[in-house]
Amino acid sequence: MANLILILGDQLTPDISALDDADKQHDRIVMAEVHDEASYTNHHKKKLVLLFSAMRHFAKQLEEDGWQVHYQRYHPDNEHRSLEAVVAAQAKDLKPERIITTECGEWRLHAQISEWHKELDLPVEIRPDTRFIATKQDFQDWAEGRKQLRMEYFYREMRRKTGLLMDPDGKPEGGEWNYDADNRRKWTGKPAAPATFRVEPDDTTQEVIDLVNEHFTDHFGTTDDFHFAVTAEDANQALAHFIDYALPCFGDFQDAMSDHEDWLFHAILSPYINSGLLDPLAVCEAATQAWYAGRAPINAVEGFVRQILGWREFVRGIYWMNMPGYAEENRLGNTRSLPWFYWTGDTKMRCMHKAIDSTRRNAYAHHIQRLMVTGNFALLAGIKPEEICDWYLGVYADAYDWVELPNVLGMVMHADGGYLGSKPYAASGKYIQRQSDHCANCHYNVNKSTEEDACPFNALYWHFIDRHRDDFAKNPRMGMMYRNWDKQKPEKKEALLNRANKLLDQIEQL
Ligand code: FAD
Ligand code: SF4
């Protein structure tokens, strides 16, 4: 008897576990662009184009490989507006023995699919997602009994497990586990950043661009200048482009920001890895081969591998171990709404304007902009975690709940009480000045803290430190901040807190 196999939009991998032992002759694959998934959050228009186009290309490839595929294209008047409705209609037609799928990347949909067997009166087999390097169980075994979970120790385990960047004696290549200290250079325009990898839209992509422009007008961002890869073949070209042109400098300028460059030396591979067009382990192997071949230095390659083998796997483990409660966390008690300029980029703060504008145009901002600019501001201003999480989930082409939520709620907002990160990434304007040239072009003055034109990050930083004394004063990594704060004259402290309160009162005008 036949099975009905559901493949989701971020499962565009030919050896996805749902297809294990499948029968091309009898089984039917279902893929669908449905209203509910496209509209449950304010997905960036470019993300919609990327996913719909990549899904269409993937379905075509499956058909050419001899699979039977039922593919539903998006239309607002589609009769079936949810995945369940599409699957139910196909099940009625095929009368399969079971429905098979690979576990999805977010709790919301996972909870729904886990209940389908009742409504559909059919067994629903949910298979593990073998594209991750650690299984959920591996992560739980590692986490068990540990008071604090620290990415660095998990990452070392993963290095040992995979043998990536390990020498034959089981020691880390180059002698160190982590070369982060070498990866903090400011970029002053030299060496020139490489041109971004581009794929011009083919007919399928152009059709989807037209569809998104017609039916998703209210969604964030623009489809202009869409140049993402939408097939595995092109995504592999993007990987090769990164290794050849950007990886050698990836480490040095990993934490840099520029007023003139959106992409710098970053990989721009997360949209492909997260949707299944690229395999994370293969990406790490390609980078390590570049080191063995002498084509990229160890600080670049180790730094890059750590992001995927370490951070990416770590946040996924945290997500599944702690959902659904994790999404509700707000340990710092934040109550402020997200300022409107997060959606428009209309702010006099140059660093924020640049990060948001890149996000709007590209569905991309690099890690340090997400963490130390838009994230840092939300942390200092005390934005409600659910509002800033919704923003990050909507605006990036690589955003999926399993990876966005721990990064935002845990890493940026410290709303989990330090479960994911040992200290909040709070910083004043000095950090942004050190890592970028934004301040030179800003309305505000980064060297001032209490005056009308003073950089907002400066006073907000001390306000954050002051109002969260009970949360952080005993944190050994925060001790110096509190000693510095306590050393300031009372008049200066008062002026800083007054300035911060004024900024918070007028937050929409910043
Ligand atoms: P590079 O900087 O070149 O890094 C290489 C790869 O490492 C990335 O492609 C990605 O696969 C992985 N990676 C790096 N850092 C992380 C991380 N912290 N967590 C998981 N993977 C990581 N990443 C997402 O994939 N989706 C998200 O929704 C997302 N939201 C984020 C929100 C915030 C507030 C922060 C601070 C980070 C977020 N990240 C997210 C992580 C990271 O910023 C992006 O993966 C990265 O910017 C993607 O661009 P890139 O491919 O050029 O990455
Ligand atoms: Fe950002 Fe402050 Fe620098 Fe302006 S002065 S760019 S607000 S850090």
Verbal overview:
This protein has 510 residues and is mainly alpha-helical. The protein has 3 domains: 4-127, Rossmann fold, CATH 3.40.50; 136-194 and 246-322, Serine Threonine Protein Phosphatase 5, Tetratricopeptide repeat (Alpha Horseshoe), CATH 1.25.40.80; 341-509, DNA Cyclobutane Dipyrimidine Photolyase, subunit A, domain 3. The protein contains 22 helices and 5 strands. The chain has helices spanning 35-39, 45-64, 83-94, 107-113, 116-120, 136-143, 151-162, 203-215, 232-250, 270-275, 280-292, 298-322, 341-344, 350-362, 367-381, 385-395, 401-412, 429-435, 456-467, 469-472, 479-487, 490-505, and strands at 3-6, 28-32, 68-72, 98-102, 124-127. Strands 3-2-1-4-5 form a 5-stranded parallel β-sheet, with helices on both faces. The protein binds flavin-adenine dinucleotide (FAD) and iron/sulfur cluster. Iron/sulfur cluster binds at residues 349-351, 429, 432-433, 438-439, 442, 444, 446, 455-457.
